[in-house]
Amino acid sequence: MYLYYTSGLDKKVLSFFVHYIEKNFHFINLRKLFPIHIIKTCLSDNCVFHSEHKIDDAIKTVVENDDKVLLALKETWLQGQNCCELLLDGNAVILLLAEIKSIDELVWKLVHSIGHLYGLSHCRNLTCAMNNPIYPDLDISQNPLCKKCEDGITLASKKIVVKSPN
Fold first, then answer.
1. pTM of the model
2. What is the DSSP letter of 3?
3. In a 3-state reduction of DSSP, which class is residue 64?
């Protein structure tokens, strides 16, 4: 999985984030899910966080590799429709990072978004990431999902292409 970022996320934070995601999720090929013009639009105008790659290289990398999470700096519009909404059709997750201030908040929002990807609705448990997409002042060193939501993801992963690893 490739993540594109600016210097706003230091390498230690990014390393932790990538390890967390790779440990908990398996991602499928983005190019099979979306038309290339959608991918290119989302990668244009520095919309997607990237490092050490020109935008053309970033497009090529995303199209040729198994990517499911795009970290977007800002919303991008295509023919009057929000590209983030186009991609959030049950097949992918896009996080807008402009207001994210910490790795905990980043993981919290990602877990929340992936929960929706797996079909979870908002949870009533106040300590669960599915309760609210707004990051609370909680320690995420524990599992950010409650048992019910974790079981929901496990069940959904057996029914759809996107699945948790063994």
1. 0.50
2. -
3. helix
Q: Which domains does the chain have, with CATH numbers?
A: 11-157 (3.40.390)
d(CA 130, CA 118): 11
DSSP string spanning 83-144? HHHHHTTTT-EEEE-TT--SHHHHHHHHHHHHHHHTT----S-TTSTTT-SS--S--TTS-S
Instruction: Determine the Cα–Cα distance for residues 26 and 52; give it in Å rounded to an integer.
Output: 25
C-alpha–C-alpha distance, residues 26 and 17, integer Å: 14
CA 76 – CA 72 distance, rounded (Å): 9
| pLDDT tens by residue, 24-72 | 544 434 444 445 555 555 444 433 333 333 333 444 444 444 344 555 5
pLDDT in tens, 67-98: 445 555 445 555 555 555 444 445 555 565 55
Q: Which of 13, 38, 158, 156 is nearest to 94 (CA)?
A: 38
Residue 48 burial by Cβ neighbours in a 10 Å radius (0-12, 13-18, 19+): buried
Q: What are the b/e assignments for 145-156, b being 16+ CB within 10 Å?
A: bbeebbebbeeb
